Amino acid sequence: MKKKILLLEDDKLYNETLQDFLEDEGYSVESVYDPYSAYDKTYSNHYDLYLFDINLPFEDGIEALGNLRSANDETPTIFITSRDDKESLLRGFSVGADDYIRKPVDLDELLLRIKAVLYRVQKENITTLGEYRLDREKKDLYKGAEAEHLGLKPFLLLDFFLLHDTKALSLEEIYRAVWRDEEPSNGALRVYIAKLKKYFPNAIEVIRGYGYRFESSKI
Predict the structure, then answer these.
(1) How confident is the model at residue 185 (pLDDT cuts 50, 70, 90)?
(2) Domain 4-124: homologous superfamily in CATH
(3) pLDDT by residue (tens digit) across 146-163?
(4) For domain 126-218, is the CATH number 2.60.40.10?
């Protein structure tokens, strides 16, 4: 499956040049020209990488990435910039950029940086849980070569448990983490808990009248 890139660059000619090059290299690229269009795209689509210019209309690329990170969007990001001041670079990394490349962009260097970031993220996306391996990108749980697709909400639940290992979590905390802006369902939560208990029967504790606790040491 092709890796999917969201390209945010307001110079239309330069945008087309980068898009054509990356598509020729086997990537799927969607182009936008301002941060608000990028927000619309990220709301309804999954991307493997963001490629953001910094100098943009309305707000700069650093502010745009900061807004996405505040919404728990952890998509790896490379900045394209004509700036060479230290302050801009520090701002970019402080909001969660993974790398940057200066204009005029050397296309071969850009390709190498994209591959390096995606490779690093792929390695970081694998978490070992006893005899299982969790692929965070695919949301698959592996036992040997066999894969079980968790689905979005069971994955978010497991991810939230792992983030707060051994902590007693209230139903309200779990609802916010898993359903976010949607209406939560206690019945659906019980189904997701039962699904995770198939793999980790001893790790999930029911705290009556409160919520749940996950202990990875009991996997």
Answers:
(1) very high
(2) Response regulator (3.40.50.2300)
(3) 899 999 999 999 999 998
(4) no
Q: What is the pLDDT of residues 108-142, one digit of tens each?
A: 999 999 999 998 887 777 888 989 999 888 899 99
The structural domains of the chain, with segments of one domain joined by +, span 4-124, 126-218
Measured CA angle at 163 (ends 157, 168), to 5 deg = 75
Q: Is the pTM here over 0.90, yes or no?
A: no
